[in-house]
């Protein structure tokens, strides 16, 4: 037994009920959000409904996406064969980059194998190359943004979440001639709340800052052609670099940035997660391309998604079940206590065949566990009603706090120490 192995053996024994359990879910193409899963080892497979997938628009099973993917796989095979620099640029990569640049109204775009790699690679270069650059990063930014900024080595200031006065104070404190970069998301991934985009644009202009906007939870879903929240608000031009994923509303995998030619060129030349990894399989790029093209001209999926989100929010309001962001398609149900949250998630699965993962630290701050419910365009109205009724049953069964409750009620609440 080596010292290192010994350390992990002990560490994992002490981990107790913090150990991560992954439910094995079989999504069935054409039937999502229907899937099958086993409750526990040895249980028979049963039908469940998924309420925590980022395949928000069901593009992961859209016929146009599957057809494009299958045709490209037949034509080009499975993998891309290498990194873009060495051996892996396929005509579909080039087409997809042109399509994404056009979607966002930017001169150029660059694909990465994941959204995580896009943020990590792009920010490490954009924040890292200019001497004396300063970065301003929203407190709730995604781990991939944080890592990218860290890898840039730039001086960094974290501003309080969506707090424009704080951002301005930090901007004003730096010498006017220093290169500045503001990095933020349009829709925050855990609470689903929106950034004050117009205000950020205004501050950026006033202080001569470059902007980097992560629209991962908005591309495909907002704006008349699915270009995101900034496009929906008609202010996409105010932001220098937009970053998105092909893995959420576009239903496949991969990440990208779009922006000015010079920045795209520099990232292509220097970003390690671009240079030193195998490029996207052409078939997946073809599937993503079909999804982007489809959602540029079809709004039916966006409309169903928002209909389902608004219905769920109304049903939760009626039942006084607290959730975070009324304007969002992400319905994060506020529970607080980690153990209670996991218990609710387990009961939803066991008694109602509903799968919503409990989310706790490090994705959210300790003591602020949520059930991050993600309606999709493919849920039926009946699915939404069944889900709200199941939550209501469990809230009663466990005595979980409801909006407006005066004092904690029931034992579960007494243990929950901070339900919202
Ligand atoms: C999911 C996510 C990413 C990473 O995207 P992937 O394509 O899943 O790697 C980046 N930013 C935010 C805000 C995310 O939620």
Automatic annotation (TrEMBL):
Cited InterPro entries: 4pyrrol_synth_NH2levulA_synth, Aminotrans_II_pyridoxalP_BS, Aminotransferase_I/II_large, AON_synthase_class-II, PyrdxlP-dep_Trfase, PyrdxlP-dep_Trfase_major, PyrdxlP-dep_Trfase_small
Keyword Transferase: yes
Protein name per UniProt: 5-aminolevulinic acid synthase
Major enzyme class: transferase
Cofactor(s) needed for function: pyridoxal 5'-phosphate
Molecular functions (GO terms): 5-aminolevulinate synthase activity
PANTHER family given in the database record: 2-AMINO-3-KETOBUTYRATE COENZYME A LIGASE, MITOCHONDRIAL, CLASS II AMINOTRANSFERASE/8-AMINO-7-OXONONANOATE SYNTHASE
UniProt domain Aminotransferase class I/classII large: residue ranges: 51-391
Catalyzed reactions per annotation: 6-carboxyhexanoyl-[ACP] + L-alanine + H(+) = (8S)-8-amino-7-oxononanoate + holo-[ACP] + CO2; succinyl-CoA + glycine + H(+) = 5-aminolevulinate + CO2 + CoA
Alphabetic keyword roster: Acyltransferase, Heme biosynthesis, Pyridoxal phosphate, Transferase
Species the sequence originates in: Nocardia africana
One of the Pfam families matching this protein, by short name: Aminotran_1_2
Enzyme Commission (EC) number: 2.3.1.37, 2.3.1.47
Stretch forming the signal peptide: none
Pathway assignment: Porphyrin-containing compound metabolism; protoporphyrin-IX biosynthesis; 5-aminolevulinate from glycine: step 1/1
CDD domains xref list: KBL_like
Recorded family membership: Belongs to the class-II pyridoxal-phosphate-dependent aminotransferase family.
């Amino acid at each position: 037994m080596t010292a290192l192995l010994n350390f992990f053996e002990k560490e994992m024994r002490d981990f107790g009920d913090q150990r991560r359990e992954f439910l094995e879910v079989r999504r069935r193409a054409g039937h999502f959000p229907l899937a099958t899963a086993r409750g526990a080892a040895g249980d028979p497979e049963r039908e469940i409904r998924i309420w925590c997938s980022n395949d928000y628009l069901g593009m992961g099973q859209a016929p146009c996406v599957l057809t494009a993917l299958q045709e490209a796989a037949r034509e080009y095979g499975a993998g891309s064969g290498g990194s873009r620099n060495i051996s892996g640029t396929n005509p579909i990569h080039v087409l997809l980059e042109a399509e994404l640049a056009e979607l966002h109204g930017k001169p150029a775009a660059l694909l990465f194998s994941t959204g995580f790699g896009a943020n990590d690679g792009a920010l490490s270069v954009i924040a890292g190359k200019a001497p004396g650059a300063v970065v301003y990063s929203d407190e709730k930014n995604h781990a991939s943004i944080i890592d990218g900024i860290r890898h840039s080595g730039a001086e960094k200031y974290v501003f309080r979440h969506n707090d424009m006065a704080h951002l301005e104070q930090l901007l004003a404190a730096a010498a006017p001639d220093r290169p500045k970069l503001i990095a933020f998301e349009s829709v925050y991934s855990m609470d689903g709340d929106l950034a004050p985009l117009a205000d950020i644009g205004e501050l950026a202009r006033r202080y001569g800052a470059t902007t980097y906007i992560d629209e991962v939870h908005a591309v495909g879903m907002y704006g008349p052609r699915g270009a995101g929240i900034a496009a929906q608000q008609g202010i996409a031009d105010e932001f220098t670099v937009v970053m998105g994923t092909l893995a959420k509303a576009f239903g496949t995998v991969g990440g990208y940035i779009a922006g000015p030619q010079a920045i795209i060129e520099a990232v292509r030349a220097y970003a390690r997660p671009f240079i030193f990894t195998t490029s996207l399989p052409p078939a997946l790029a073809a599937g993503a391309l079909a999804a982007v093209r489809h959602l540029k001209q079809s709004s039916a999926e966006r409309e169903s998604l928002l209909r389902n989100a608004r219905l769920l929010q109304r049903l939760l309001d009626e039942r006084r079940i607290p959730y975070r962001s009324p304007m969002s398609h992400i319905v994060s149900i506020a529970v607080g206590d980690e153990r209670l949250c996991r218990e609710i998630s387990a009961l939803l699965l066991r008694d109602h065949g509903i799968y919503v993962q409990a989310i706790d630290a490090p994705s959210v701050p300790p003591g602020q566990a949520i059930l991050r419910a993600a309606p999709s365009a493919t849920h039926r109205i009946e699915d939404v009603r069944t889900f709200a009724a199941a939550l209501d049953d469990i809230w009663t069964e466990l005595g979980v706090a409801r909006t407006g409750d005066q004092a904690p009620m029931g034992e579960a609440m007494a243990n929950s120490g901070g339900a919202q």
